[in-house]
Every structure is written in structure tokens, then in C-alpha cells.
């Protein structure tokens, strides 16, 4: 488990709102028509990686990327090893640079 994770109890209002928004979004996955990247850890105990895979499959946009990082947890930039954080950061930067006309070589 990620030592930096939230350890408090979820509030009922937060849970209800998350369920409502999740249902709303699930009904509209095929409406997604903007470029996006989904990053997910395969060891995520908070959010099922299959949900990210479903978004990737259902979204109608052609410019979409999914990366599921083997063995990584929910918080990809906090609580992971420095090496793993660097991998994720480089993937995000490469994705952004490829779409912004920026230099594609990381320094």
C-alpha cells in the first residue's frame, strides 16, 4: 500500500456523489471526442484498471493513449519509486510534446 494514501473514513456525501458521477460518466464514455491519455497502475487498489480500459475502448476519439504500469499503485507520482515516477513523467511529457508541436526529444 502507498504510505501516503488517505487513511480516513470516506464521508457518505462524498461516496454518494462519486457513485452519481460515475453512473453519469459511464453513460457518456462514447461521447468523448478529445485527445486524452489514461495512466493507471496495475496494482491500483482504489480504481479498477478495467475502468480505464473501458474508457479507452468506448471513447470515439482516435487520438487516445492508455498506459497501464505493471505493479504501480493508484498514485503514480507520489508513493512510487523515483524511477517509476520518472517513467510516468516522461510518458506524460512525451504525449504532450507530440501534440503541441514541441520538441519530441526529452532532455
From TrEMBL:
Domain Serine aminopeptidase S33 residue range list: 2-80
Listed InterPro entries: AB_hydrolase_fold, Hydrolase_4, MAG_DAG_Lipase
SUPFAM superfamilies in UniProt: alpha/beta-Hydrolases
Superkingdom, natural source: Eukaryota
Pfam families membership: Hydrolase_4
Protein name: Serine aminopeptidase S33 domain-containing protein
Gene: Vigan.08G204800
Amino acid at each position: 500500500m502507498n504510505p501516503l494514501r488517505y487513511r480516513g473514513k470516506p464521508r457518505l456525501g462524498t461516496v454518494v456523489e462519486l457513485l452519481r458521477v460515475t453512473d453519469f460518466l459511464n453513460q457518456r464514455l462514447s461521447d468523448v471526442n478529445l485527445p486524452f491519455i489514461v495512466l493507471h497502475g496495475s496494482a491500483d487498489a482504489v480504481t479498477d484498471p478495467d475502468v480505464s480500459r473501458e474508457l479507452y475502448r468506448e471513447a470515439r476519439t482516435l487520438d487516445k493513449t492508455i498506459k497501464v504500469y505493471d505493479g504501480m499503485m493508484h498514485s503514480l507520482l507520489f508513493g512510487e519509486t523515483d524511477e517509476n515516477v520518472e517513467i510516468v513523467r516522461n510518458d506524460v511529457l512525451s504525449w504532450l510534446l507530440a501534440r503541441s508541436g514541441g520538441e519530441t526529444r526529452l532532455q
